[in-house]
Specification:
With 107 residues, this protein is α/β, with parallel strands linked by helices. The chain has 3 helices and 6 strands.
């Protein structure tokens, strides 16, 4: 399991990639990726879930927290290319109504 992130030059976009298990063990690292960003600019967070092979309820909670953080600062969260296991968790939680999702949630 790993988490990596890059911030675009203008600071307006942060790309976060989750590989392997997305669970409670990643909560601190995940939170650090967005809490270290300035609060005075609108940031779009793109979370790539293509290599995520497991996602539990704590991961869903983390997504809700980053969504709240982004919205409070005028930004957004986009979930990119969910893998079949992550798509299944997102569908079960009906996250398509809360997030923009690039890629398929089809079973």
């Amino acid at each position: 399991m790993s988490i990596t992130h890059t911030t675009c030059e203008d600071g307006m976009r942060v790309d976060i990639t989750i590989s392997g298990r997305f669970d409670f063990k990643l909560s601190r690292a995940f939170r650090d990726t967005y809490q270290q960003q300035p609060d005075d600019i609108s940031i779009d967070y793109h979370i790539n879930l293509a290599a995520t092979d497991y996602m539990d309820s704590s991961a869903l909670g983390m997504l809700l927290l980053i969504r709240e953080h982004a919205r409070n600062n005028g930004g957004s969260v986009i979930l990119d290319q969910p893998s079949p296991p992550s798509a299944s968790a997102l569908r079960a939680a009906k996250f398509e109504s809360l997030f923009r999702i690039n890629g398929s949630l089809a079973a």
